[in-house]
Amino acid sequence: xxxxxxxxxxxxxxxxxxxxxxxxxxxxxxxxxxxxxxxxxxxxxxxxxxxxxxxxxxxxxxxxxxxxxxxxxxxxxxxxxxxxxxxxxxxxxxxxxxxxxxxxxxxxxxxxxxxxxxxxxxxxxxxxxxxxxxxxxxxxxxxxxxxxxxxxxxxxxxxxxxxxxxxxxxxxxxxxxxxxxxxxxxxxxxxxxxxxxxxxxxxxxxxxxxxxxxxxxxxxxxxxxxxxxxxxxxxxxxxxxxxxxxxxxxxxxxxxxxxxxxxxxxxxxxxxxxxxxxxxxxxxxxxxxxxxxxxxxxxxxxxxxxxxxxxxxxxxxxxxxxxxxxxxxxxxxxxxxxxxxxxxxxxxxxxxxxxxxxxxxxxxxxxxxxxxxxxxxxxxxxxxxxxxxxxxxxxxxxxxxxxxxxxxxxxxxxxxxxxxxxxxxxxxxxxxxxxxxxxxxxxxxxxxxxxxxxxxxxxxxxxxxxxxxxxxxxxxxxxxxxxxxxxxxxxxxxxxxxxxxxxxxxxxxxxxxxxxxxxxxxxxxxxxxxx
Length: 531
Hints:
By secondary structure, the chain is of the alpha/beta class. It is built from 21 helices and 12 strands.
């Protein structure tokens, strides 16, 4: 069964679709990844550079699928350059030529192409250049199966559950809760203490399985769902490293590949959404679902900008993100508190882009609308963050869907987050104008039992904090509370891997606590002071 799954995926994947798993495969085979798949402008090329177990410098040119002799004509100059010019990369100092060069395809090479590569390789060796080799689909299939046999720590507890994910048509949202449970079953996150090699094997296997699961959504260009799959893996890997105090050599390659895959998907989302006249909502004749869709897309675009800023010091799609936010946010709506992380990221991104007044308006409206909607006995109270934006979007598609009898009036999970954002920017009057309504809404917050659970969907030992804001309240206390940041409440590795930080509350909306929100404001924008 596994062989058929891997073969089917490999056959249907495009060139981009197998870059990440191929890099992970090389890592599991003992290669040091010097340059993996990259999706940002300041990196040159998309070739993969590694050092193998013997210390040889290897360069891989990835193509796909089947390659005939006529098609090889356009590839041959690239292989010629790859074998003759020194490889330029920060990890190769001083620059030097590769010791081995490979053409890789997830399809097949015709016999004339194979013969041509052998002739070129012989010519290279005669001239003192590196030999050329090739890797085809059948070779890849065998190596992937060996990698699973060696690196899968245990069989998935529910293989049928995996098949349901893998066989999805990819047209709806990614079932994040189901996929999180699947990943947690692959990774040793229980009470037992695994060995470091076991953790590395599990990380490698989870990376490969994430490729298979997300392939359905990749096929439909559902960029948000693809990004969410890889980001859930990244969060699980940081949690794994946090729980077992792993050395970077055991998890960082898999984490970096996951982040790169998410970046590629979100870069494509930003390109497509910013260049269109409006967002596309398939198979819908009216505009009912547009508000949650706009909020979700803008939230991920803003998180992408913030992540790029944190990772590289800049974002080459800054103007595209800004264009998208300014165009779509007038149509977005806080349809539930699960959308609050989207709005929070949007406000941070606009603030970082010097559009502070616009950001202030959105957060002020968030605080005002939520405090009014969730008054005691209100029939218009917004759902809590446990009701995902995806669920609300599905409800918009199906207005006759039966809802549960749960009530949300008289309480809110994110109202205090908005108020503290305003307080850190000294917007006292914005808060004063709504404080009478605020005091009638109880602040709720589920605090994780341990910092690592910020990276998890569930925490059975989480602590529910409930408090009623006083009337009157001193501005000094509001301001001091908003400014003081407890970074020790967050996982240390999460604070170090700031590129993951803006995505976390999008994956787990119920994790947007005061500590996480203040940590994001401080680590991404420099607001507030660690207490």
